[in-house]
Amino acid sequence: MTLDEIFVGSLAVFFSLIGFSIGVGPWNAPYQLRTFQRVTQRYGKSKARVLWILISLVFLALGLSVLLGLRPSYASPSAERHGLERLFRYPEPASNIAVRTPAYSLNWR
Q1: With CB atoms counted within 10 Å of each terminal CB, which end of the chain scores lower, N or C?
Q2: pTM
């Protein structure tokens, strides 16, 4: 798992906790957002609370799927996770052969 996957997954879980606390908490400020004002006017505050909780559950599911490394079948997994990073590195040159270093490299580290 790379650092960006950890960051994105933990950020999604953090936002799910915030959304859940808004849904069950006593705050009125989040319901002043335009979308939630319309939901509150049309269906009532209890439905707007349910909407916040549903959004938080979606964020929780997305965050956990990123943290667990779940991917669709057509997505290629990262090379590091499956030990394929050696395919993206140049081999070590032999000591008696002069090798010119390329201007670019597939190794991003």
Answers
A1: C
A2: 0.65
